[in-house]
Amino acid sequence: MKVDAGVNCFTGWHEMAQCSLPCDPVRKNLRNGRRRSARVSALSKDWGTSGCKQTVLIADIGGTNCRFELWRIDSSGEKNHQELYHRIFPTKAFETFPDALEAVSQEEVFQTNTPSAAAFACAGPVASNKCEMTNLDWTIDGDYLSATHGIRMAVLNDFEANGYGVTALDEEHLVVLNDVLSTEKGPKAVLGPGTGLGEAQLFWDEIQGGYKVWPSEGSHSGFAPRGWKQRALQAYVEREEGNCEVEYVACGSGLERIYRFLQSDEGCNRPTVDLTTCQEAPAITKAALDGSDPLAVEAVDLFLAIIGAEAGYLGLRALATGGVYLCGGITPRLISKIQDHRSLLAAFLHKESRFHKLLKTFPLYAVTHERTGLLGTREYAIRLLGQPSLIKAT
Questions:
Q1: Does 158 share its domain with 214?
Q2: 1 lies in a domain?
């Protein structure tokens, strides 16, 4: 059951924010202090005293939109979880994340299904259960929110959430690329080309009885080219950006960069190809899939070879006998090209490498689930249900 009700924004300090005060530092600090005091008062409801033991709240918070979902969790082990609420808000509609959270808490379905745990996936670095958003003037402070509402609230990096998501995927959302048996409780590696390139490693935690995700900034390490064309691409990117990290050639803008690199070739080398067109990633993908642009086909093949190589490197770093998973928004769109095994899988297995035999032992999967991050956020929130609240509101 999905519920789509209107937003009933609360009043109080939000109205106070509309007053016009001179913006000198003293008055600004006074105003912020009043706001904070009013916010604490407005958000002081202790959900822990009335929360439904099997209900969790999750959110995916980006620079433009904030997606909230409320789930009733099936504790039988059958995973027949029920979605009670799903709503996307533009982040510009709220000054702070607590404002958005309070608006959601006023919904009727929330009032009758108050959660006992919450997890939020954020597009930004997370430290000490707190995220300062990269492209948004929001701070998501899990400890503050836990103290306010009396339930456990966790803040995750958005790709960390993808890592937890792969542990909850059904087989129907996995395309097997390297078909070998996975090792039970073996390490896993996850990478995802999309707007950027995310990377993470998963290791089994005996105490928790599940995988622990370790986020990474590995996508910002140096690109390791293979062959003359990739070395030329590296030089091209270095002239453009000053250096060439993996993400520069392994995400949406990276695909566009590869296409521009191929366009820079001498016309005499490609007499039958139009080198004057300028393409964005969705158009390049479409043209590669329908075969209407030979340059787009070449760009996507080169792009997938780079992704495959990076998947192999990540698998070696983690000794990923539990599997390497390709997530991200681009993966489902290019699944037919990924499955042809010419570019990505060949680069992953790297027959020329002395570690080819080891790479062959790592399962490789393409993930077609387009909301793996939210799936992982829900998975993490479910784990919190079995934990005592960190802090109780007083």
A1: no
A2: no
Secondary structure letter of residue 222 according to DSSP = B
Structure tokens at 352: 């020329």
Both 196 and 77 in one domain: the answer is: no
Q: Which residue range(s) make up the domain with 122? A: 13-163+374-385
Q: DSSP string covering 127-177, please?
A: ETTEEE-SSSS-EEEHHHHHHHHSSEEEEEEHHHHHHHHHTT--GGGEEEE
144 within 8 A of 109, measured Cβ to Cβ: no
- CB 118, CB 102: distance < 8 Å: no
- Indicate if 262 and 363 belong to the same structural domain: yes
Rounded Cα distance, 159 and 278, in Å = 30
Apex 53 CA angle, 50 and 58, nearest 5: 95
345 in the same domain as 217? yes
Q: Within 10 Å of residue 105's Cβ, how many Cβ atoms?
A: 18
CA nearest 99: which of 159, 31, 154, 17? 17
What pLDDT, in 10s, does the model give residues 147-169? 998 899 999 998 999 999 999 99
Kindly report, residue by residue over 67-85, the tens digit of the pLDDT.
999 999 988 777 889 999 9
Query: What SS3 state is found at 140?
Result: strand
Q: What is the pLDDT of residue 49?
A: 64
Query: How large a percentage of the chain has pLDDT more than 70?
Result: 84
CA distance 233 to 225: 8
Name the domain count of the chain. Answer: 2
**The two structure tokens encoding residue 9:** 């924004």
- In a domain? residue 7: no
Same domain, 177 and 151: no
Query: Would you say residue 183 lies in a domain?
Result: yes
Q: Measured between alpha carbons, how far is 271 from 200 in angstroms, rounded to an integer? A: 43
**52 lies in some domain:** yes
SS3 content of the chain, % helix, strand, coil (to 5): 40, 20, 35
Taking CA atoms, 239 is separated from 150, 236, 302, in Å, by: 53, 5, 19
CA distances from 266 to 225, 227, 272, 275 (A): 21, 19, 12, 9
Same domain flag for 181 and 150? no
DSSP notation for 239-252: HHHSS-BGGGGSSH
